[in-house]
Structures are given as structure tokens and as C-alpha cells.
Amino acid sequence: MLGTFHVFACWVLVIGNGLAGIWALTANRLSWLQTVWLWWFTGFFQLWVFVQLTIAALHLNANEGAPQSFHVFYGVLSAVTVAILYSYKNQMKQHQNALYGWGGLFIMGLGIRALVLL
Predict the structure, then answer these.
(1) pTM exceeds 0.85
(2) Contacts of 73-81 spanning 24+ positions with Cβ under 8 A
(3) Distance between alpha carbon 13 and the CA centroid of its chain, in Å?
(4) What range does the domain containing 63 cover?
(5) How does residue 3 score in pLDDT terms, banded at 50, 70 and 90?
(6) Residue 60 — very low, low, confident or very high, per pLDDT cuts 50/70/90?
(7) What is the pLDDT of residues 99-114, one digit of tens each?
(8) How far is C-alpha 112 from the chain's CA centre?
(9) pLDDT, tens only, 62-82
(10) Under a CB-based contact definition with an 8 Å cutoff, are residues 98 and 28 in contact?
(11) Stretch 88-93: mean pLDDT, rounded?
(12) Which position among 9, 20, 94, 114 has the lowest Cβ density within 10 Å, counted as fewest Cβ atoms?
């Protein structure tokens, strides 16, 4: 049960962060796309990384499976990426769309790589 939910949550992470990344990069060129909804959307899917980590920890704690070490690495690296993006948001204020755009695509890539290792 938790394993299936973990995979579903990973797909939500991949698709959501990919869409947020594309939206932010597009908003970098088209200023009319720079809305408050972009940041709500991006924030939701970046917080979803921590939801995914919680589901993974519960899954491991229930002894429903043993992950490969790199699968765990990509999950933790996703959370570290969110923290790094957040820490640079004030310093990169003028390039915030590019920062969160490329960051969202990077998180999407980490999620895809983690899915491949399942």
C-alpha cells in the first residue's frame, strides 16, 4: 500500500516540478505569466518533496521494502535542492524565475532518476 502511494507521489513530484519549472522559465521571457499563482504552484510542488520523503520514511519503517542506496540519495538530494533554492531566493531576486525554473527541472530529473531505480 505505502509502496504504491510512494510511486504515485513520486509521479506527482516529477510532473508538478516539471510544470512549475517550465512555467517559471517561460515567465522569465513572458512577463504576463509572472503571477502569484506561479509561486503558489512552485511552492506546493517543492513542499511536496518533503511529503514524498515522509512517505518514503514511513514505507521504510514499515519494512515493506529495501531501497537501493542511490534511490535514497536522489530523494534526499531533492530536499537539499529545495533548501538551496530557497536560500538563494533573495540573492537572486532579479533572476528568480530562472532560479526556480531550472531548479524545478532539476528536481524533476532527480525524481525521474529515483523512479528508474525502483
Answers:
(1) yes
(2) 74/110, 74/111, 74/113, 74/114, 74/117, 75/110, 75/114, 77/110, 78/13, 78/49, 78/52, 78/53, 78/107, 78/110, 78/111, 78/114, 79/49, 79/50, 79/53, 81/49, 81/106, 81/107, 81/110
(3) 5
(4) 2-116
(5) confident
(6) confident
(7) 999 999 999 999 999 9
(8) 10
(9) 876 677 788 889 999 999 999
(10) yes
(11) 91
(12) 94
Domain count, the chain: 1
Are the beta carbons of 47 and 40 closer than 8 angstroms? no
Q: Rg of the Cα trace of the chain?
A: 15
Pairwise CA distance, residues 94 & 111, whole Å: 28
CA distances to 2, 25, 28, 89 from 95, rounded to whole Å, are 39, 10, 8, 9
The residue behind cell 505505502 is: 2
